[in-house]
Design a protein that fits this description.
With 356 residues, the chain is an alpha/beta fold. The chain is built from eleven helices and 18 strands.
């Protein structure tokens, strides 16, 4: 996608170096970083310089490939995979990408493993772009159908950031919105602020602004009110892990939006690439939910005199709890928007249409 008329993706290879956009500085500053060591990759994921389930997976794939340049022994493969798996627990794309590479290199000669793993990482990156675009095309049809009935701007509510910054390009939940706008369908987006890190207000709003898509930032609790007022035509969210039964784990607060949507008869879609489906998990209680630093609650990052600053907003010593994700049961999800089409959030449909 474009930033000031120049095309960017979130991670790319330039002169054999791996580069990323540091998302902790957006939208205030555009900082490009080079990742050179396994430690750099692990840090970039842990510190959320790169974030969003698909992007975490692609970053891990390149991290593994780079670690094997120095030492492609089985011992170092295991060590590197374990270090990368430790970075963030919930997004299953991380495990998916690492096991995709592991399966294909484990029986190869040591001297061939680094080159092959880099080729595979590039393939995963490329497929992420294609799959997100296909999700966009499939989701576009939903928006178009609603527009044909309504003939007025379509109000779409989204939570967190499932745009191009959460993937390599296009995004998942925002991809249909980008395509709708580029194809002349009038859309307006309700952007949940998404406390505590504010990925909605900081990243989603910035992506929409860059694409000249009308949007309004709202506090996370405003969605229910807007739905009761018939100000929301549909909701589209992303996912960090979706069970084989179609329960969708996504940013904390997604569940409450889905409940409101259900109560108000508003369609609620989750945009989910196949790499986000955890075919091994039936029971959503088994999904590891990341609990993040309580400092995310008590401190805010903002721009002060053109400098990025952080300030404390709570009493010191209050008890705090900061789970980063929740699970929306499949019964509240209208359909999964996947690269393979719209799929019922049901085990039989997921198994039939999406393969491991
Ligand atoms: O904690 P984050 O910023 O990595 O959380 C991101 C989300 O919850 C996204 O909605 C999810 O990863 C889907 S990304 C296409």
């Amino acid at each position: 996608m474009k930033i000031k008329n120049k095309n960017y993706s979130t991670l790319w290879v330039e002169d054999s170096k791996i580069k990323i956009i540091d998302q902790t500085k957006l939208p205030f500053k555009l900082i490009i970083k080079e990742l050179n060591t396994l430690g750099d990759f692990c840090r970039a994921i842990t510190q959320m310089e790169v974030r969003g389930a698909p992007l975490i997976g692609v970053t891990a794939a390149f991290g593994l490939a780079l670690a094997l340049r120095k030492d492609a022994s089985s011992k170092n493969i295991d060590k590197s995979i374990n270090a990368l798996l430790e970075t963030r627990p919930t997004a299953v794309n991380l495990r998916w990408a690492l096991s995709y590479i592991f399966k294909r290199i484990k029986n190869k000669r040591i001297q061939d493993r680094a080159k092959l793993s880099l080729e595979l990482a590039k393939k995963i990156r490329q497929e992420d772009i294609i799959n997100c675009f296909k999700i966009g095309l499939n989701g576009y049809k939903i928006i178009e159908k609603i527009y044909k009935k309504k003939r007025k701007p379509i109000n779409i509510l989204t939570h967190c950031n499932a745009g191009w910054l959460a993937t390599i390009d296009w995004g998942t939940a925002l991809s249909p919105i980008f395509l709708a706008n580029r194809n002349g369908l009038p859309v307006h987006i309700w952007v949940d602020e998404t406390r505590p890190r504010n990925q909605g207000a900081l990243l989603t709003a910035w992506e929409l602004k860059n694409e000249k898509i009308p949007y309004t930032i709202i506090v996370d609790n405003a969605g229910g009110y807007l739905m009761q007022k018939k100000e929301v035509d549909l909701c589209i969210v992303g996912s960090d892990r979706t069970t084989s039964r179609g329960d969708v784990c996504n940013k904390i607060g997604t569940y409450l939006k889905a409940l409101s949507a259900f109560d108000n008869n508003i369609p609620f879609y989750a945009a989910v690439p196949q790499s986000t489906i955890d075919f091994k998990i039936d029971d959503s209680r088994k999904i590891p939910i990341e609990v993040r630093s309580s400092k995310e609650l008590s401190h805010l990052t903002f721009l002060k005199k053109k400098k990025i600053s952080t300030g404390e907003i709570y009493f010191r010593n209050s008890n705090k709890f900061n789970p980063a994700f929740d699970v929306t049961p499949a019964r509240y999800i209208t359909k999964l928007i996947t690269e393979k089409g719209l799929i019922e959030p049901k085990k039989s449909e997921i198994m039939k249409n999406l393969q491991k």
